[in-house]
Amino acid sequence: MNPNFLQTPIAYLKGVGPNRAETLKSELGVHTYGDLLQLYPNRYLDKTQYYKINQLKDSGADVQIVGKIVHLKTVEQKRGKRLVATFADDTGKMELVWFRGYKWIRENIKINEPYVVFGRVNRFGNIFSMPHPEMELLKNHERGLKIAMQPIYPSTEKLAAKGITNRVISKLQQQLLLESRGQFEETLPSIILQELQLLPKSEALLHIHFPKDQESLAKAKFRLKFEELFFVQLQLISKKIIRKQKIKGFPFEKVGHLFNTFFSEHLPFELTKAQKRVIKEIRADLGSNAQMNRLLQGDVGSGKTIVALMSMLLAIDNGFQTCLMAPTEILANQHYNGLKELLGKMDVSIELLTGSTKKSTRKTIHERLENGSLDILVGTHAVLEEKVRFKSLGLAIVDEQHRFGVAQRSKLWKKGASHPSPDKGEVGGAVPPHILVMTATPIPRTLAMSLYGDLDISIIDELPPGRKPIKTVHRYDSNRLKVFHFLREEIKKGRQVYIVYPLIQESEALDYKDLMDGYESISREFPMPDYQISIVHGRMKAEDKDYEMTRFVKGETQLMVATTVIEVGVNVPNASVMVIESAERFGLSQLHQLRGRVGRGAEQSYCVLMTGNKLSDDARTRLQTMVRTNDGFEIAEVDLKLRGPGDLMGTQQSGLLNLKIADIVKDNQILKTARHHALRLLKEDPKMEKPEHLPVRKHYAKMVKDKAIWGYIS
Ligand code: ADP
Ligand code: MG
Q1: How many distinct structural domains can be found in the chain?
Q2: pTM for this structure?
Q3: Ligand 1 centroid to 566 CA: how many Å?
């Protein structure tokens, strides 16, 4: 085959032409023969199988059933009529339904004669029904040609309008296979093909578009999914190897005075086993010559801050500066105050830089960063500004990473500016700081390794001792008075309460109104002077927010009415109740984050999820999950199943979202296998030079060239 065959512009394919080519490009992203070949069917109509009525599932799938029409009736409804046939086989009964064209059906249909019907089934109560079925008398059907599985390709309205129907696409695929003589270059080494008994590439492509039966389809799918995931893993793993070899980091050789003093004299509690393990992992990274790029996962309240601090002390002990970035001003503030308190009288300088830092203070901070007299900078995005330059940034920590993009992470890399060690022949410049990103949005373990191939991962999987699990309940708006009563009881005991309203960008004005209405009704229910209420939302000035927040932190107010600005990180151990309004509108990870604001003290804490009566199935699942468990990893698993991986951090960059056929959630098992084989291959042959790896190297090079695989942080 001509090696450039797959790059041939789609317009050249017989049956396409310039007009259709345009439509294929704009609607399906199909520019070349190769693109068309990779336009895989979404689903297949299986006309090789016959179902019995009692085997039907509520799956929305198209099925084929043999039976007889035993009864036919017309049902009058508000708008028009419908024709309903009772269709039976030896296992049960179902309905066939027509909303139009029923006159013809009525006149032509044969009662009590065996038919084959084909179509999509829906369930209404206990009755399955098939609207507008394809029908054929069994005796004709048996005489006719048996069609195999029919592929259904993605379609759009515009495609349909331009006459590019499913049949047309299927024809084009046929034409393509014809022109290529069905021969496509193998991309996997024969040893993997043998070991996993994979179909050769050419066969897989044939069967994905024209499967004979379920079995050949399953094999084709497996082969193509494996291949796709294998190459993504190959990319991730080789990047990591390159990073470790090429990207030098500053070796923090000693565990010095500050770290030791803090550990022996200032540590306010005993570290959990998990915290100790993670600190060890970080120390090992920092002590090596390679740059650390580590993700620290730990549920809310698992104690990531202390790990961050101890890592920072390591940096300072080795003569470096360090910074900690948080996504909101409130959180940066809290980190700043918390760290200052933890550091106590130790000789470490620390400053806070946010959008609302005064100009004069800002100037001093800039100077002290540049002359190296400032050890720790805590801040928001403000830290990333051009003007902020460090003399010797050795370690950058990002808290709650999911709020930061990769672009921002890469800005941090460059802040490393220079810290030359002349004795090692370095002249400054290119050494990036070590990077630790911390997140409380756990990614299911199984997935994390494969997703973030270029990051190392540490997990704090243990909460500090003595925490009481938070009790979570779901209440309907109609029970609001009871909930208020409960809040009064808790406040009487000296506790504090959060009441959180959703704030979603698209409907900001409306949400804002909800919040204000809520605030008003809460002010009525909890009147002054017995009750004091704080309110915090995104439209307030930073200083007003801080003022309100501080009153709550100090215990001067008992209720905090807020939007999700308090979602991340805020630590008020005396707050023991979290009420989440319109909880059905929040995502699972957000609900879990919010709940994590309570349960930080010794008292029993509660989370109340308030909703209206109307709930979607997904919303119900989210609420039930929250009520059932406090385990962030379990919640993350459910979230992943509900929403898919689209929102997980880093997935945009990993290339794992642009998959053509595999699904990292559903195909997790294949992903693991692919990862295993990719690791093995690279271990054995890091540059893919061995002749038996030639197919892999060729395909890999092509994918990198086509940017089918994403580029590294630039
Ligand atoms: P997160 O991981 O959510 O950032 P924090 O670092 O804010 O958690 O810690 C939550 C709370 O737990 C803080 O009040 C902190 O002082 C406390 N804490 C952390 N580690 C321990 C520990 N090992 N023993 C007891 N309390 C701890
Ligand atoms: Mg935190």
Answers
A1: 4
A2: 0.68
A3: 17
